[in-house]
Records
---
Amino acid sequence: MDADRSVELQAAVREAAACKTPLHIIAGDSKKFYGRAATGTPFPVAQHCGIVHYEPGELIITARAGTPLAEIEAALAAHGQMLPFEPPHFGPTATLGGTIACGLSGPRRPYAGAARDFVLGVKIINGQGEILKFGGEVMKNVAGFDVSRLMVGALGTLGLLLEISLKVLPKPQHELTLAFTCTPQEALAHITEWSGQPVPLSGACHDGARLVVRLSGSRSGVIAFQRKLRGEVVNDGEKFWQQLREHQHDFFKGDALLWRFSVPPATPLLNLPGQLFIDWGGAQRWLINPLPADVIRASAVKLGGHATLFRGGERIGQVFHPLPPALLALHKRLKTAFDPHAIFNPGRLYVEF
């Protein structure tokens, strides 16, 4: 499907701004569990879709925000290319706009880069109903203060995404998944050691019993490091990483509170009870734990990181780690600049705006 609904969406936003009517932006709704509870008048945008421009030779793709993520990935796969940040879908209705608005990245993130690292430009409608364009389709257009990347992870609170331009990369020539039976502490030690060597890692996690790593690159290079690291070959490695990306691994099943810790990779284990899953080579720690939020977040701060209530619980309090006063003030100024009437997804990101 290819449909440009820019004019209709712009008119609707202008009307909402004039009436100061809050809007709850809805695309594929596959990530509606993420962030704080949505408020405002439902504002569906998924019909604004279609790939606008794709140049495989330039490794650039531009698509409308409502374009299904599966359609983007299929178009890239046909040319042996991929979205390097390996975004999770969390359902068949996932869209490009929702993916960028949530700013989530998969297991390849610490080795290839995060979602915002591949955003070259965006077209948005701001809170006054103006269509604005930032960046472009080449890297030189994102030098200096890159406004387009502010939209990544903003959960639609700064503007309505219309189009996104992304840099893409060729798929690796060869990939192999290896598993090592070891403790979480031993896994972190292994990953720290290998990170200081030219090991072609593209995924590293500990699922509670095993360290599982993915090697990506040339066939000869991957095989050479397989022989060096040894380990057990995981025959369904591609399926393992897909299940991890989509939270279909057994660890993520159930309705228990799921916390996501972001910490320096070599940080020691959390001094908290509960089930633990280590991803991103140690930089992302998933914890199933019913302790109060202030206890969880205090532990994250001691480790030099922060904690997000990723899933579960009542989504009416602070879901994301509270911001320091100076940073909160900056966020409020950005919100006012882009959305002066506070009509876009109010309160979806933080209680304060």
Note: The radius of gyration is 21 Å.
---
Amino acid sequence: MQLGRDFLRALNQITRERGLSTELIASSLEAALISAYKKYQGGNQEVEVHIDFESGNVSVSELRNVVKKVESEDTEITVAGAKKLGYKGLAVGDVLRIEKNPEDFGRIAAQTARQVIIQRLKDAERQVIYDEFAGRVGEMMTGVVFKSENNQVLIRLNERTEGILPREERITGEKYNPGDRMKFFVLDVRQTTRGPRIVVSRTHPGLLRKLLELEVPEIADGVIEVKNIVREGGARAKVALMTLDSNVDPVGACVGNGGVRIKSVSRELAGEKVDVVIWNGDPLLYIRNSLSPARVAKVEPVLDQERSVQVYVYPDQLSLAIGKAGQNVRLSARLTGWKIDINALEVERMPTLSDIFHDFVEEKAE
């Protein structure tokens, strides 16, 4: 039986181009041809297939165990039965290989081989994609939106790879129009029966970290360390920084001249406001810094509650400390890992001239 030399030449070319091993193709083809032969014959035979990739010859053999008494005609034969078929010198316990070349099976074999090759190519491409992206989890990539309909947003990451942007990983209110180029965080890569499933994010703190590394050389070089990041995607974020270099101002370096660096990051995140604060090993100082841009009067730990503080601000700073819908204090609590309760500090008012005059009049009246 022949697969055909043209088919084999094409097969060898494909395996070279796609990096598939001949052994992998051979084992896959042989397994597929065994299955096809069994269906063709309609029995439960033990079958052996061998493919010669030089000549294109395919040999199919049915295996029979030589026994005293046959219980399964598909898999067993007696010594006498083997002699009738022309096989001599066999004994009980031997294995007889009967070469088969049924009519029309050559066509079936060729069709099966083509199907196996197509499937193996798909599997190989999927594995290549998986291997490439599995190592890129946690990285930032530029992608192009190519489908945004029926609540499904798909991102073209390269010529042959698509990523999924789930609803929970999208910035609220951000538009994803086909053709839009933007940056994404590779969140997860999983192998599925339909190929690799690559999930990307626009709201993950890792995306903000990568953008800062891109815009701020001091962060990329390790002079400034990003200790923590919390985000409410598209609305507001807080970044805690530290440095061991006394000559470097972490906040100033991150913001840039005229705010150019932080504005560039903000534009990439749909205008998300980014607060940059100084990390401190003293939790009370860290909490004070985290509530920026509000100015804090004092921070007191709540002694009977673990990781809980009372923060006092002057009345004119109260709304700023709390933030719109509690956003500032909420992000500060997430950034520091402490429960924060904001209170207005009552200011002891100094007496005015009016007060002094009023007291003087009352004294005279007495």
Note: The mean pLDDT is 87.
---
Amino acid sequence: MDEIRKNKNNILDGDFSGLDKANMIELLEEFPQKMRDALRLGEEFSIPTAFSPASAQNFKNIVVLGMGGSAIGGDLLSNYLADELSIPIVVIRGYDIPKFVNENSLVFAVSYSGNTEETLSALKKCLEARAKVVALTSGGKFEVLSKENNFPVIKVPAGIQPRAAISYLFFPILKVLERLDLIKERNKEIEETLNIIQELSREYSSKSPLKNNLAKKVALSLYQHLPLVCGSEGLLEAVAMRWKTQINENSKWPCFWNVFSELNHNEIVGYEIENNINRQVKIIYLEDKEGSLRIEQRREITRKIIEDKVAEFIVCPTKGKGKLACMFSLIYLGDLVSYYLAILNRVDPSPVACIEDLKKELAKH
């Protein structure tokens, strides 16, 4: 086992450009620049008269349409703005929309490719419901539909895997909500987040050795184990889901997620009986250092109850003081962990062959 671990150490500190054919690591290491560019898009977006701050006060709900990587920005916004917005943010993944979507709904239709069939279907139904729609896309059928129906588009750069475009799928919407006076301006939080991510991009970079690199250490720990990512209710709920989906897509590996304190009412019981499956589980706890004391007490008690039933209990704390920094410091760590786990699994992190095969089969019908 020590010899295997040594070889894996060498892999993570070596040259893996031969595996990473689309150079995803460059995108990840350039996260601060992408974040700045995404903020610029939100600031430069031309807000139509129908979406003016005065009109925005009539909105009864905010709806985000999307699937997969294009939807997660909506989940993050919902968690992040829960204690500020007086109207709900609802994320809709699928072909249909709820009855409450109407002319008083502000809809962000998000499809990075512009061709996601479920989101296209939901978008057309939002137009029929006379909702106020903003599309966020790199092009495709979304762009064509927007021109035909004269609704505004935030155009983001093409050529990136949607899951690697999280900056472009979150920050422009945040800026638009700010400019509509639906939320307060948050320049200080944004600046703190940029500074922390800039620092972490050096700490977690491919050139940073394993001994100093938390992302590489966590990936190595998870290798050949079943990860269970645990967030906490509110701020880190969607972040835990993001870790799960990134490990699925980048690492080509099963992963699951849950949230405190909900898991204390069900999942914890799954560890009562010692078995070989639980011995393969490694729990990653996303710790909100600025969060609820009661949640931390639950986490510590839970750890004591199940620690000897699982392979390991890994704690990954947030960085920074503001909520935005706390969220994105862990999102960034999870993205890099999933990347390095892909390298350990000897797979290219970018392609998602199963998804492409499924789309081809659907196209036959």
Note: The domain at 26-185 is CATH 3.40.50.10490 (Rossmann fold).
